[in-house]
Amino acid sequence: MPPFKPVLDRLLRAAAQVRGNAYAPYSGFQVGAAVLAGGRVFAACNVENSSYPLGVCAERNAVAMAVAAGERRIEAVAVVGGGERPAAPCGGCRQVLAEFAPPEAPVVYATATGVPVATTIGALLPSAFGPADLRGQRGSTGRPATPSPGKRRSATRARASRTSGR
After folding, report:
1. Considering 59, 71, 75, 104, which one is annotated as catalytic?
2. Of the options 3.40.140.10, 3.40.50.720, 3.40.50.2000, 3.50.50.60, the CATH number for the domain spanning 2-124
3. Is 71 a catalytic residue?
């Protein structure tokens, strides 16, 4: 990860700066995230909502900004949040990051004043479910292939693959 150190430092600074813009009136838990995609930094903060499930994490907002700019591959991630200890991306954010970043993509997370923790997407979400799991799921008839006994899909995933054309 040494070649990424200057990039990760830049991402951490961007995440720390945007963290101050977080809209977190309910939890008070401000988070900033920055992703590197296409050589550009996309930084965003968390946005809460009085209807709690509608809040959006900083990491997903940063990924959405990169995607909206036409990027499809995340090269590195930084997150700044937490109190005494740094807050790693939540499970949902890990899944979204794994959708756009390879397992070896570096991730760094830290508090505003603490020592950063360095890891990778693959270490945060080993054996992630991703786009490759949906490829080849159609048989020669154009209908979804029957999963092998060791690779069963949930009814929701099977329905989603039928309706999404994957």
Report:
1. 59
2. 3.40.140.10
3. no
